[in-house]
Amino acid sequence: MDERVAVVVGGTGDLGRLITARFGQAGYDVAVVYRSAADKARALQQQLVAGGRRCLTLQADISRPEEAERCVAAVLAEFGRIDVLVHAHGWLSQLELFHQCPVTTLQQTIAVELLGVMYCCRAVLPQMIARRAGRIVTLASDSGKVGSSAEAASAAARGGVIALSKSLARENARHGITVNVVCPGPIATDSLQRNTAADPLTAKLTEGMIRATPLRRLAQPDEVVDLVMYLATGGAGFITGQAISVSGGLTMC
Predict the structure, then answer these.
(1) What are 95-104's pLDDT values in tens digits?
(2) How far apart (Å, rounded) are the C-alpha atoms in residues 167 and 88?
(3) Which residues on neighbouring strands pair with residue 86, listed in sequence order?
(4) CA atoms 62, 66, 69, 75: torsion sign
(5) 3-state secondary structure (DSSP) of residue 87
(6) Within 10 A of 39 (CB to CB), how many other CB atoms are there?
(7) Whole-model pTM?
């Protein structure tokens, strides 16, 4: 039986590390694409190899199309196939009101959170189409559905990812490829904890979201990762073109 292969873009982030580890536990060989956290990438590689899986680490700026293509080519050269693409890459910036946000931040946010997803999907789809199988799961945000104060650029990018994924789901269903989006609300990650401690606006907005959430708490990372793994590896073969919220009822649409 051929080994299954997953590519996790943003694999060294808070959620990306959990997703990568879960793929290893599920018997997948994994390619971890990361921007700058080489130490975390090495630790993940050691963890997967110790568990009997193969792991390729690739440093890249996926906001550049040639970098996305280089990564996919390297994965195919190493493993010969890609069964799953999970895009968990985000642009971590402080919350800022739109009219005060520097243009460079707007550009970087769109480049990473929207164009990066486009480039990675475009690079990976040809071999999935040729094999007539594949699953693509992208982490977006409920802000892409309903908007969000102080993160307009990210909300615009995430909304674009949702529309892109629905379009790709329609285009590629006939090839046996499913494309879905997981849209978390606020998650109790290390990054959020650091940002709320450093930025009063982030802390205020986070407190407001907790109060507005029917379940009155933040999501735990594993609660989001569970859904990602179901869509990527479980019995979700008849689910495609969906943007599924994991937000404790904060959004119901």
Answers:
(1) 788 999 999 9
(2) 19
(3) 8, 137
(4) negative
(5) strand
(6) 9
(7) 0.93
Strand order of the β-sheet with 55-59 is: 55-59, 28-34, 4-9, 84-87, 134-139, 177-184, 243-246
Cα 91 to Cα 104: distance, rounded to the nearest angstrom: 12
> Which among 21, 82, 30 is positioned nearest to 55, based on CA atoms?
30
Task: Return d(Cα 169, Cα 190) in angstroms, integer.
Answer: 32
pLDDT (tens place) for every residue of the chain, 253 residues total: 468 999 999 999 999 999 999 999 999 999 999 999 999 999 999 999 999 999 999 999 999 999 999 999 999 999 999 999 999 987 656 678 899 999 999 999 999 999 999 999 999 999 999 999 999 999 999 999 999 888 899 999 999 999 999 999 999 999 999 999 999 988 877 777 777 787 887 788 788 888 988 999 898 999 999 999 999 998 999 999 999 999 999 888 7
Strands (E), the chain: 4-9, 28-34, 55-59, 84-87, 134-139, 177-184, 243-246
Question: For domain 4-186+221-246, which CATH number applies: 3.30.70.60, 3.40.50.720, 3.90.226.10, 3.40.50.1820?
Answer: 3.40.50.720
**88 close to 139: Cβ distance less than 8 angstroms:** yes
DSSP-derived letter for residue 219 is B
Q: Spell out the domain ranges in the chain.
A: 4-186+221-246
Q: Token digits for 47? A: 């963890």
Q: Whole-angstrom Cα distance, residue 173 to residue 241?
A: 9
User: Residue 81, exposed/middle/buried by CB under 10 A (0-12, 13-18, 19+)?
Assistant: middle
